[in-house]
Specification:
With 150 residues, this protein is an alpha+beta fold. The chain has a single domain, classed as Roll (Thiol Ester Dehydrase, Chain A). Helix content is 35%, strand content 35%. Strands 1-2-4-5-6-3 form a six-stranded antiparallel beta sheet. A hairpin with a 4-residue loop joins β1 and β2. α3 packs across α4. The longest helix has 23 residues. The chain is elongated.
């Protein structure tokens, strides 16, 4: 299956305008890894001169949601998806280009296929790690997702 970055970023423009206007972009997506980047700019900064935590959260969530959305589309069945809980830890100021990566794509595909097959809801946690241009961890987010066949 081919992953289309343009399609995800177009989706952001029309359905997640806050993410789009603050510079959140899907930059890599394959079966194993999703990467979403955001660059520090005036529109996404906090009063302390770094990327606002909520903008980091949008980028991190999208790096996990990309897998869920792709796996659901692959099934061809209607499936609802919802973030139940979110947690974050921050290590340093987010300045420059920050890349959020989630590397749990293969497990998401299995979980979604199982939910569609059995009709039972599934809950799972996906982790996204944000790093700066020097490779330093800036922030880490965990999202508990729930999916259910409609």
């Amino acid at each position: 299956m081919k992953f289309d970055l343009l399609r995800f970023n177009r989706f952001n423009f029309f359905n997640l305008p806050a993410a789009w206007w603050t510079g959140v972009r899907v930059t890599h997506l394959d079966k194993k890894v999703a990467e979403v980047s955001v660059k520090h700019r005036w529109i996404n900064q906090n009063p302390f001169g770094s990327i606002f935590w909520a903008v980091q959260g949008m980028a991190a969530e999208l790096s996990t949601a990309a897998f869920v959305m792709t796996a659901i589309k692959k099934t061809g069945r209607p499936v609802s998806m919802l973030v139940l809980t979110a947690s974050a830890s921050f290590k340093k100021k987010a300045k420059g280009l920050i890349k959020f990566q989630c590397d749990q794509g293969l497990s998401v595909s299995q979980i979604v296929e199982n939910a569609v097959k059995t009709g039972e809801p599934e809950k799972f946690i996906l982790r996204s790690v944000g790093t700066d241009e020097d490779g330093n961890v800036v922030s880490t987010f965990e999202f508990e997702w729930s999916i259910k066949r409609k």
